[in-house]
Amino acid sequence: MVSRVIPVDVFDLVIFGATGDLARRKLLPALFRRMRDGQMPGESRIIGVARRDMEADEFRNFVRDALEEFEPEAAEAPDVLKAFLGALDYLVVDVRGDAGWEALKAMLRPDIVRAFYLSVGPSLFGEIATRLKKHAIAIPESRIVVEKPLGHDLASAKALNARLGACFDEHQIYRIDHYLGKETVQNLMAIRFANALFEPLWNGQYVDHVQITVAERIGVEGRGGYYDKSGALRDMVQNHMMQLLCLTAMEPPAKFNADFVRDEKLKVIRALVPANPQSTVRGQYRAGDGEGGYLDHAENPDSNTESFIALKVEIESWRWAGVPFYLRTGKRLRARMSEIVVVFKKPPHAIFPEMAQQGSNELVIRLQPDEGITLNMTIKEPGPGGMRLTEVPLDMSFAEALGAGHHVPDAYERLIMDVIRGDQTLFMRGDELEEAWAWIDPLVAAWEENGARPKPYDTGSSGPEDALALLHKDGRKWREIES
Fold this sequence. Notes:
This protein is an alpha/beta fold. Helices cover about 35% and strands about 20% of the residues. The chain contains 14 helices and 15 strands. It has helices at about 20-35, 55-70, 80-85, 100-105, 125-135, 155-165, 185-195, 225-230, 230-250, 260-270, 400, 410-420, 430-450, 465-470; strands at about 10-15, 45-50, 90, 115-120, 140-145, 175, 205-215, 280-285, 310-315, 325-330, 335-345, 360-370, 370-380, 390-395, 455-460. Strands 14-13-12-11-7-10-9-8-15 form a nine-stranded mixed beta sheet, with helices on both faces. It has a six-stranded parallel beta sheet with strand order 3-2-1-4-5-6, sandwiched between helices. It is globular, with a radius of gyration of 24 Å.
């Protein structure tokens, strides 16, 4: 199967923080792959902006080294690599002052798409936006892309929205969440709204509960200063997991466009029952297996910050009344795994004696590391000897289904091209961001008032024992985090 690649318009993309880790590992390799696959026009340009003093040729060598490390197949396409490096330029700009801005303005071409990717710390978002407007670099065809963290509470999110809104219209602001660029996340909408099979069952009459897991093997090494002020709730639940929850629970949009989809996501957030601190479990990994614990890397050696969070969420709506959504995410767990699991209710009447021992039907939507979809079903075990039941997966791995050599674009490839196209469907709107923080803040305040420490858990485990009990007391259990 050959994927259809629709070229975008010629563009100028300015990457602020172009020598940083995100640009080196993700953004620049993603853009190279878009040129290699024929989606990025050769006339487009990528302008790196950073504090490091270097010439344009030095930046091109920097990018070449990054591609050798993170996109080794670049060497197999020397003509594309040459064209990509030729599309690069570099400029030193003082993002807190006025030096370099007029030079940047002169470098940009009129009458084409102009995008600014802020791969910098959030404290610089407002500074850069203000100067883009002040120097008349931001024009009506401009787009600005900002990465998380987008605030640390409702007040800071409102302040950020206000500052960005003073310089750009809402339709020009792209709040990026790379989880929404994953192929399987978008396939969740296709499964629901393009098939007659699942949507009639996608409600409390047939669904027992939903589990959303984002497990990581890595710890907080190198990010201790940031993470200690954030924690798993702010770092993962407020954005990534909230978005996955919304896409799973939202009503069908009237049309598949940005505002209709985001309107439905917003309704889900507004329908969330206030979080009950008694239905949450906070954890903090300890040293083990030769690895240091969280406190070895935290800014505060007596930190009360959670590296794991599990919580039970409920939605007040006709569709989901009585259906719990269980969310969990953590560092230093058994494996790297992200998935959404829709667990269906068992048949109302068991005609086979073994049915009581069989599990429920589950639709497993795997986001990483192996993107795909599995439907776990009960069938008759082959062979003579009566009606013996067994569980089997109907499995669709994207890599296998689409064939060898088929390149599934990664999240950043897709999202950057969406920015150039002006498609905001997979980006958060300002009111979504604020409503998510409005739901999170009371839970944080309750924890701070309680003062209880996170539960310790072992490196390489599935998290604290209390997280298992969160489901056990409801007569349910988590799907295993498979190593």
